Write a sequence for this structure.
């Protein structure tokens, strides 16, 4: 047993230089909804959640201009912008019940993606990036 007990996944944080743009992407593409967030004063945050997962939230945080971390995956020195490499790379995954129409909506929005169907024929996946270059997956299992 680990040191911590009763552990749950509470939120995923993404820093960005444009909090509103990134929030709009997650709202329009994946159906997130904005939830109440504390006022942190010096920097902007938007908190989101999926109606189907009320205990897990996505925290979009205005980037600290003094941060020494790379601004995002696309700004790192060995960045890869090709979604074909996401199946074995860093990404957040979402299950969707309307896979085919979801993929069609990504195409209509002009979002570059990589589709993959596993040998079992049941597991379908699509990999793509958010506007800041963070890897995303949606699929059926």
């Amino acid at each position: 047993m680990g040191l911590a007990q009763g552990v749950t996944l509470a939120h995923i944080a993404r820093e960005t230089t444009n909090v509103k743009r990134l929030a709009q992407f997650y709202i329009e593409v994946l159906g997130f909804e904005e939830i109440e967030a504390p006022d942190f004063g010096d920097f902007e945050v938007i908190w989101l959640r999926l109606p189907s997962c009320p205990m897990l939230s996505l925290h979009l945080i205005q980037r600290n201009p003094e941060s020494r971390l790379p601004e995002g995956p696309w700004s790192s020195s060995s960045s890869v912008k090709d979604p074909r490499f996401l199946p074995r790379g860093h990404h957040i995954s979402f299950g969707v019940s309307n896979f085919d129409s979801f993929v069609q909506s990504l195409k209509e929005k002009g979002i570059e993606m990589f589709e993959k169907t596993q040998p079992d024929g049941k597991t379908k996946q699509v990999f793509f990036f958010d506007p800041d270059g963070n890897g995303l997956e949606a699929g059926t299992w």
User: Anything to note?
Assistant: The beta strands are 11-16, 33-35, 45-50, 53-62, 92-95, 113-117, 124-129, 135-140. The domain at 80-141 is CATH 3.10.180.10 (2,3-Dihydroxybiphenyl 1,2-Dioxygenase; domain 1).
